[in-house]
Amino acid sequence: MYKIEKIILDGYKRLKLGQIGHIEIDFNARDQIIIGTNGCGKSSIFHELSALPADKAQFEKTGKKEIHIRKDGKSIIATSVFNPKPFHSFMVDGVEMNESGLITIQAELAERYTGVTQEIQDLLIGKILFTSMKGDVRRQWFTRLSDANIEYLIGVYVRFKDELSVISGGLKLAKRKLVAETSKAIKDDELNAIRKDVEGLYHLIEYLAERRIPLDNHLDDLKSDRKRLLEYIDNLSESVAKAFRFIGKSDFNPETIQDELSAVNSDIRVFKIRESEFFNQHKEQSEVFEILEKTKLESVAKLSSDIEFGRSAISKLKENKTFSKDVHYNPEEAIKTIGAIFADVQEITTNIEANPNKSIFNRAQLEILMMKTANSDNALKDLYGKRDKLQVLYDHRKDHADEGTLTCPKCDHTWYRGLTAENIANIENAMKELLIKIEQSEAAHKLLLEERERFKVYSDYMKSFRSIVSHTGIIGDFWNKITEDDHFDQSPRAIGTLLVSYKDDLSIDIEIRKNEAEVIEKLKLLELATENKDKDYETVKSSLEVLNNKIHENNVSLTLTYNKQEEMTKFNNAVILLESRKKAIEEAINDLNTNTANVFENQRREAFNAILRDLQSILASKERVLHESVNQINMIKDLENEIGELTEKEKALKVGLKVLSPTEGLIAKGLYGFMQVFIRNMNAVIAKIWSYPFIIKPCNTGEEGSIDLTYKFPMVVNGVEGDHKDVSEGSSAMLEVVDIAFRICALKALKMGDSPLFLDEFGKTMDSVHRRATTNLINNLMEEDSFTQMFLISHDISQYGALSNCEICVLNDMNVIFPPNSVYNKHVVMY
Hints:
Helix 7 runs antiparallel to helix 16 (537-660) and helix 10 (331-351) packs antiparallel against helix 12 (421-470). By secondary structure, the chain is an alpha+beta fold. The chain has 20 helices and 16 strands. The chain has helices spanning 42-48, 103-114, 118-124, 135-147, 150-184, 188-210, 219-249, 257-297, 300-319, 331-351, 363-402, 421-470, 476-484, 487-490, 494-531, 537-660, 662-687, 732-749, 768-784, 797-800, and strands at residues 2-12, 22-26, 31-36, 59-71, 74-81, 87-92, 95-96, 405-407, 414-416, 694-696, 715-717, 720-724, 757-760, 790-793, 806-812, 828-830. The radius of gyration is 52 Å and the shape is flat. It starts with a strand and ends with a strand.
């Protein structure tokens, strides 16, 4: 069994897009999905998923690759580091196999213990494509595959024998079933009688159907309509009776009511005209009276003096303003806004640091700080690693000391094995120096973190301030002034004081607006007083009293006339109602008669339809018997055809056994025989994906009489031959399917069918039908074949979203759609 358990990549250049300096992935689940935006390094991780040595050019100077693999019960850890120089380690069950650290030895060990060369890895991850191979390359691959796959042909030979046994047994069973089904078949004369009955019923039903009249209404609906009509007639009758009783009590004459009502309406119009005239006169006199009353209290000269005083007060108030001489359009609301935000603004401007000319806090400074922090963090990790290794060495030396001393039998000299006092002292001195470096580096790193926090605090305050500005447009002139004077960067603490001054200006604006309103009111009063200076106060007052009496008398007459109009209108409405109810009753009776006729007609049609349904039921019963009889006959024919097909298959299998026989055909066929089987297996994989007939044919020989193969594999698409002389001529989707089929069959032929299955955006060129088929293929391959793991790179949520019990690694979440309720990167550590 071949299983990749874990990979660690440090300083891997191909992950730079996602700003990933370190990634560690534990592959626990069988199905592994790697997703992320284009260019983030998904395919590059595929390239590193083997025990082969890492390429120095793909890593930073301090980079590292470590991969854990379990193969045939052995635990393998392959590591590549490049600082100070490239060194490769290959551990098998805890034992170092590459003590020299050479890259060539690492590659040999990878092939010996995992069976993977660079060529095999390229085949595994899909870099080697069958459809793009030249003829000589295909010949080399088939030669290599056939040498390792002779046993496969023998397996086919055994399977043919097993199939022959199954088909022979099936042939006997089919013959016995044919005898049994033939005995159940109905006789011809009985079948003809049923056909005749069916034909007669067809004609009868057709005749009746032509004369069938559809139901216009359901009987329940007609009965409901009848009930509604009867209730409607009762309500109309009750309404007529009430109208008669009302007319009988009234003194009005039905014949003259219209003329009398017209006369009353005319009187009302006259009263309304008078009312309007009196109202206008009263309004004019009231306005003059109010002006005369006010001018009695204030003279024209005093009004003029008050106006000048008010204008002078407004000018002085404007001079006292700090920010602008213009008056705010809504100072009250602006003051409320300042009250709501003042505490937040005060907190921000008091605590935020000044940033003169944006020289302290800017993007360039932040990027330099982040780079220094990252370098400092890496340096600390290296120092911690050295400290741990030194501690292990120290403990190892101390273990030797615990083993006791040795004494020389000649000179009685005593010493510790593999240990001197100088050894221990050197290690202790080195440890002290290292701890001092660590302490110094930690202090420097702490300062960098504090500086980074300082940047964060400034950024948070800046965001809060911008939010306040964007949501308080009513004081936009204040914010514009702050921006123009660059107070936020140069002197943020002054903003609170300036905001108080601005609020004081708003309070002055309120006083200004109040004074302006008073001046306008005085101006209006002065104008009216001037216009009415010649009118007498007592005369206007007397005129108003006369008008009030006239209005009162007119209102009394209008009210009495309105009451009379109301009584006459009720009487007239009762007369009109009687006439309308009479017509409504006549129409309802006609509708009731029509409803009765429709009920009788509906019942007649329902009886006709019931007879037609009974005949249709009898016809369906006879047709069912006829259909079952015909099916019985067809079953007999199918059994006869099945027996014929099984007989042909039996003959074909016997021929196939002879062709594949080790003594008659296997050796003679050689590579071409292997190739035919290999292509047939590829076609089996293709059939699991492709929605219409699409097969690959084995290659042919060249010129007539030649035994050299062309290594061109024609395609038969939808039964059409000749259009595609080689698999390389297929569509992009066809090429994908052919290449995955070749890869699967080649891995099996190489005895690597238990290796992981790598799929890099498999199905990306296919339509939706074939993409769904790829998902089914993936599940079938993992369930039916011996692949131990599946690694999938995909941008299609319908593909990776259909896989359950999988682990998802997201390298970069830009342009990525996640399946509902999905969990990802639980098995991943990256930064």
